[in-house]
Each structure stands twice: as C-alpha cells, then as structure tokens.
Amino acid sequence: MKKPGFVTLVIEDTDGKRVRNLISETPFPAGDNTAYWDGLDDLGRSSSAVSGKLVNPGKYSVRGLVRPEIEARYEMSVYSHGNPPWYTGNKSSEWLTNHTPPSAILWIPEKNAPMRGGKSIAGGQVLAGSWVSEGGSGLAWMDTQGNKLWGQGWVGGAWTGITQLARDAGPKPVAGVYAYAAVAWENELRLTELLPKSLGAGSDERMGTGEDRPLLTPTWKFPAGTPDLSDKGYGGNDGIAGLAVRNGLLVASLPVTNQLLFIDAHAHKVLG
Predict the structure, then answer these.
(1) What are the Cα distances from residue 217, in Å, to 116, 226, 254, 260, 268?
(2) How many other CB atoms are found less than 10 A from the CB of residue 120?
(3) 136 and 96 in contact (C-beta within 8 Å)?
(4) Mean pLDDT: which of 91-105, 160-174, 187-201 is highest?
(5) Comparing C-alpha atoms, which of 108, 97, 218 is closest to residue 163?
(6) Phi, psi (rounded to 5 degrees) for 128
(7) pTM value?
(8) How many helices (H) and strands (E) in the chain?
C-alpha cells in the first residue's frame, strides 16, 4: 500500500459469487501486508465460534477496497463571541444561527454604521449573515474584534437570514441605506435595504426592530419552473451567488437561471 488505510477484502469463486467476507474496515500500515484466509466460507459462522466449512477445491479471487482515515470537519456555527453565547433576550446575546454557518461578511465604516447603545462603534461594524435560521441570528452585527453587538433572526421573510451582503461605496449611493442584503428561498429572491435608524418594529421580533425594509415590493419571484430553492440542501448559493452595488445600481448573480438581475435601488425597480 502506498499509504496507510482501512482495508476491506472479500473472496469470490469463478462465477463471482462471494464465499467469504474476509476483513472489513481493517487498518493496515503503508507497504506490504498479508491477510490470511483459512479456506472457510461464511455459512454458519458466528462471532464466538469457528463454524464455517471448507470451500470446494478450485480457483478463487480476492477483491477489495481501501480508504484513508475519515476526518471530522466542523461545519456548523461556532459558539464564541455572543454575550453570553446563549439567548437572554438581549440582542447582543447568543451567536449565529442553529442551521447554517455564516456565508457573508461585510465591514461597515463607523460613519455609516448604525449606533448601538446610543453611541457609534469605534472602527465600524462587521455584519455576518447565515442562510437558514430556526433560532439565533441570521444577521449579526459585531465590532471589529468579533464581539456581537446586535442580532436579527430572520431577514426578508420566514426562515431566512442572509447569504449575500454588499455596500455602495460609489459617490451617489441611495441616501439612508448603509448596506444591502440578499437571500434566495423557495421561489423568492429576498432583497433588503439595511437602515441606520428604525422605521418601527413589527409584531414579530424575529423579523427585527424595523432597521430593514424590502428593496422590491412585491418580492421578486424566480420564473415558473425554477427548482424550489429551499429544497437544495444547505448550500444557499443556487439562487444567488453574488451581490454588487454602486451608485444605486445593484446587480445580483443568479446561477439557477444563469442570469444577472439589474435593479435601480434609487427607484426600487427591476431594470432587467
């Protein structure tokens, strides 16, 4: 073997019929190794006794597979800088979502970022968005050291946080909007403006405290026949894979339709 691995071997007769499961998931080092067969089949065998019988004389072949060691890769939300990491009712408590890891990060300059606790945050704020939320913050606001300042469960509609974030750094941005957020769910593209001041909280606190509003009303729908985007696993990038904006012209990349969607953010309308 070229490198260490876990080996499974079976013995088969000339008709390809299996007569013995010899070893399974057995670790072997790199180099030459020997696996012994006592000539017995699997019939009547038990884990506590050698109760097989000798196979008939003839030709037999061995077939097998090998795999490397399976590595565990943690791909879920990391509980760290919530204050505390669990929910207390304070918007700086708990961390991100309980379904998906963060997939969007955006820095907001101090002069554009919303105030927290009646004061601006030195160095600006960092936004972190996660796709699906049944608890936690689908969109979180942090300081530049990663300490959570604020959080919102759903953005743009039920179940969704954010997969794409963008800021207009052009000379003619839309006044009163410091960032744009986007997420695809079912047959909708949920585009949201983030505002420095609240417009008034709704009845469902999971939808935030009024610091965001839809960019398009009604919500933009994918064409008929587009696959249900909530049924595509937890990747979140089948509906929208990119978001950019400058001088109020917003562009969304839509892999599921192989198109770019252009929107006039000043007029809140689709250009094509």
Answers:
(1) 29, 20, 19, 19, 8
(2) 15
(3) yes
(4) 160-174
(5) 97
(6) -125, 125
(7) 0.69
(8) 0, 16
